[in-house]
């Protein structure tokens, strides 16, 4: 159980990489841009891959009516996610320590993994909803107003995962370094669960009851 608990302690610590590395990356490439424009999405804000990428992306978006990219103070997620990640790291390490001293069973390791998975899915759903709003809620007074064949406005929603063609831009959205740190950490907690399950030796009731010796006087 001690090996499993050590894995459980190390796993959540990998999530600390989210404070230093981007969670997601979106790149925009076009013939007129020899160097693609890109933005790195962190848990506390958005930064350009290169120095002027955010400025250039906002300039392009202005023509088609998209809002400027949000600053950290514009979205509650950027102030909340760092606290959520910090809480999950602390909880995971605490569970690992309790497992090390055999205060909790290996089942708690999987409980942390399930909770973290739910939070991750909710985060991706929220991120996708933001992109839908960002790419479809356009300024009606934009310089360029493009419509589909049926007359509906063109959507400029970036893909959550993968590649899509937008006008003359190739847009690619993929997990970045921070996401891989998180993935490795979560895999370690799954390993901790199975290692702990194999090593777990529950205390049986029979062994917990000591036999009572009765003295008899033999004549």
Describe the structure.
The protein has helices at about 1-15, 55-65, 75-100, 105-135, 175-200, 205-210; strands spanning about 25-30, 35-40, 45-50, 160-165, 170-175. By secondary structure, it is α+β, with helices and mostly antiparallel strands. The chain has one domain. It has a five-stranded antiparallel beta sheet with strand order 3-2-1-5-4. The radius of gyration is 26 Å and the shape is elongated. Residues about 205-210 have low confidence and may be disordered.
In short:
The chain has six helices and five strands; from the N terminus they run H-E-E-E-H-H-H-E-E-H-H. By secondary structure, the protein is an alpha+beta fold. The model is unreliable at 204-209 (pLDDT under 50).
Q: Layout of helices and strands, plus pairs?
A:
Layout lengths: L1 H12 L10 E7 L2 E10 L2 E4 L4 H12 L12 H24 L6 H30 L25 E5 L2 E7 L1 H23 L5 H4 L11
Antiparallel strand pairs: 1-2, 1-5, 2-3, 4-5
Radius of gyration, in Å, reads: 26 Å
Number of helices: 6
Domains, number: 1
What structural category arises from helix and sheet content? alpha+beta
Runs in which pLDDT lies below 50 for 5 or more consecutive residues are 204-209
Beta strands, count = 5
Strand order across the biggest sheet? 3-2-1-5-4
How far is the N terminus from the C terminus? 52 Å
Bin the strand percentage. 15-25%
Shape designation: elongated
Q: What is the H/E string?
A: HEEEHHHEEHH
Secondary structure: helix percent: 40-55%
Largest sheet: 5 strands, antiparallel
Averaged pLDDT, please? 87
